[in-house]
Design a protein that fits this description.
By secondary structure, the chain is mainly β. The chain folds into two domains: about 1-200, Integrin alpha, N-terminal (Methylamine Dehydrogenase, Chain H, 7 Propeller), CATH 2.130.10.130; about 205-345 and about 405-480, 7 Propeller (Methylamine Dehydrogenase, Chain H). The longest helix has 12 residues, at about 345-355. One of its GO terms (biological process) is cell-cell adhesion.
Amino acid sequence: MDNVVTLKEESGKYFGYSVVMFNNQDGNWVLVGAPKDTFTHSHEIKTPGNVYKCKVNLITQEKCTKLMIRTIEDRNDTHREEDHQLLGASMAVFNESIVMCAPLWKIMKGNRSEPVGRCYSVDKSLGHDYSTSFNLSYNESGNSYAQAGFAVSSKALQDKQRQTVLMGAPGLHHWKGGFISLNLENIQRFQRYSHVSIHSDIKKAIVNNTLMGYSITTGKLAQKHDCSKTVVLGAPYFKTAEGITGSVLVVCLTTNKSMTVKKQVSGKMHGSGFGTALVFEDINGDGLDDLIVGAPFNRIDSGEVCVYYGTDTDDVLVKSQQELTMSIPGRFGSAIQCVGDLNKDGYKDMNRTLNGYSSQKDITVLCAKKTALKRGTGQKLGSIGHAFAGGSPAKAICYQRCTKLICQMKDIAVGAPYQRDLRGSVYIYHGGPTSLTFTQEIRSEEVGRNLLSFGWFISTPVDIDQNGYTGYIYFYLRIT
């Protein structure tokens, strides 16, 4: 493959466990989590983990260097423990800040250590190694093993123009789980969510070891559902009648620090890991976010990905008849990422969308200045989101999400890091009106030699070289 940059470090560090890309005034950067690494100047701390900064271009490659993510309190307080804290296990970029977490950062209570978890906010300028840090109070009930920061949503919650970051905390309340919403402008202002309201049957099912918050993201529901703050939580150890099948909860946040469940979807097989990976994005261009869920242990580690399309009906999400599966073991669905419109085919996809939703197959809808035009006549068909042809309504096509002159669909990348003797592959699917279309398998050997677990992590796409095309990273992980 062309335009490939390979970043490497010594094995055993879990280098590549997480990654973010961004640009600043000094160039293009990739930060790489290595949660089994050591600190440069504090070798007495046992494998605390670290984060590497790597300046990236396609001509010359500079060596990655370590950040030093420690606070004065960490250095001097004997009641805090950084051994095996998994620093760099999760990261995300928000405007001018980068959040990086150590979910096994611990508070010492006598001879007992309690992994409440800690996250750090670092300025994108990288002018200094850390700015502020956050951790839950160990004195509050249910926090002792919270593991806050086990997962971080790559999208900020829309909350009155504030930067609100969502961090999964699957160990809250004896591993029932939950999450933290954190205001980056004032890092000490946060809310802990771990209680489900109204749905008593679901509340009873959230038992110890459910691990709600193992994965986390946010998005939006149709206006009808009256939910201004929507959070999606993966709970891969959720118990159903079929066993520990895993589940995903779409919840609406309430003012009393609890959650109202708007939709729950569950796996079908015991031990499938349903909810391990999540994407909540509009992949079919209809203006409603769709849910894509990974179940990498399904069918004896072959893996499966399920798709649920957003709707403005009471169902909230409707499961697609299409299930993405593999016939060989490889943990397909371990990582999922929406990677934008890779093939720049939004115009063609828009035609397919209309044909998929409407019986009027001679109509093409273009998004241009909030009008829709009937092909060949120039007749206005109404505002964005509604079109009429021959007196028959075509279902909502375009809504308000247009890029330039067309509404683009989004494509999906799915990692299968253990396929083919642990070498791994990444699969590309193009978005469509009612299904995803497989287009390409990228094998590890096409990218570089001796790569293992290729597809373990797929980064959020970023136009890192500002050429109008988003780039993204399929990271491999070498554990041995």
